[in-house]
Protein: 7-carboxy-7-deazaguanine synthase
Amino acid sequence: MNTLDPVVPTTQELVAAGLQLPIMEAFYTIQGEGRFTGHPAYFIRLGGCDVGCVWCDVKESWEAAKWPVLSIEKIVEEALAYPGRLVVITGGEPLLYNLDPLTKLLKEKGFTTNIETSGAHPFSGDFDWVCFSPKKFKKPHPSIFVEADELKVIIYNKSDFGFAEEHAKLVKSTCELRLQPEWSRAAKFTPEIIDYVKNRPKWNISLQTHKFMDIP
Ligand code: SF4
Structure:
C-alpha cells in the first residue's frame, strides 16, 4: 500500500464511532406504550442485545451480526420518507452503540428523539425523551439514572414490584413512573397492578396497546 493512500475505516470502526449501525428493522407505526402512547412514530430497532431477558419478545434481535449495517445518513433518509417526526430508537439494546451521531442528524432534520433502553450500557445520544426499562438480567449503568424521563418496569412476577420501587429511588424526582404487565402474564398481574397503583399513586399503568390493536 502506498503510504499516501487514505486510510479507509472498517465497518467495525464505523459502528464503534456510531456512524454506521446494525438495523434489525425500521417501520412507521403508532407508539403503543408509555408516555407517547397513541403517537405516530418511526421505530428504529437496532440489532444486538446482551441483557438476556427470559421473556424477551424480540430474541431475534440479540445477535447484532445477523443484521445489515447502514450509515446514519441512510437510516435518517428512510425515516424522512414518512410524515411523522417522532422517532423511537429501540432494540435490542440501543445503548450498546454510540448514539451521538445518529441523534444529532435526526435532530438536524427536525425529529423529536425518544429512546427505549434497559440502561445496561453507558448513556449516549441527544434525546428528548428517555424511557428507562431496567431488567433484572443485567444491572443498569449508573449514567442512566439522571437521564431517565420515564421509568417503565415490566411486571412478570411478584418480586418485580420491589424491583420497581428500588429503581424509583434512583431516578430524578421528575421521572414518570410506570408499571407494565408482561404480555403473557397480563391476565394474572393486571388486577394486582391496578390495586398497586390505586394505593401508590406516584405510579401509573402502561399497557402494550399496539398488541391490542394488532400492529407492530
Ligand atoms: S433488553 Fe429488551 S431486547 Fe434485550 S433481552 Fe431484554 S427485552 Fe429483549
About this structure: The helical segments are 11-16, 72-79, 100-108, 159-168, 186-199, 209-213. The two ends are 49 Å apart (CA to CA). The pocket of iron/sulfur cluster is lined by residues 49, 51-53, 56, 58, 61, 91-93, 118, 135 (CB under 6 Å).
